[in-house]
Amino acid sequence: MFNNREKSHTESQLTNPFSESHGGMQRLKISKEEYGRPKAGSLTEYRGKKANIQVYQEMLELCTVINDEGHSVSKQTPEIRGILFGELFNIYTHINDKLVGLLLRARKHELIAFEGEVLFQRRDDNVPILLLKPIREIREIMVGKQTEIRRSLSPNPQPTNMLK
């Protein structure tokens, strides 16, 4: 068992850029799919997935506030609602201080729409923010994504320690 531990340590030192003990580092072989991603089953991957679950929850909360506090856009589609940015800012800053980032994220997931790249308080107070889908459908999408991540979480994440 000790020999296995020693061999594992020696191999990890070959890929450790801070190790001076083994005369240079081997070049890591990382595929395009692995590049920029944490090791599968690691604590880093686990924490990232937990953070994604939280972000999906916050986006759902944002869309719920828009739905509850907003107004119907048209009589043909009463389930599609909208709100002005200034009004949403005044309501939502008491809930969460990351409103602008959440708006950008929700737009990326095609849940909401608004004009411009980034919205700023006072300058963009009259910019309308529209839900693109009924809140029922948004809730199903967000809960589905959260459930998918929860199912993929490893029941026992392992810490990744490069410097063993």
TrEMBL record:
Q: Which SMART domains match?
A: Costars (SM01283)
Annotated GO CC locations: sarcomere
Organism whose genome encodes this protein:
Culex quinquefasciatus
| Pfam families named among the record's database cross-references | Costars
Report the residue ranges that make up the Costars domain in this protein: 53-132
Q: Report the InterPro entries cross-referenced here.
A: Abra, Costars_dom, Costars_sf
What is the official name of this protein in its record?
Costars domain-containing protein
One GO term under biological process is: positive regulation of transcription by RNA polymerase II
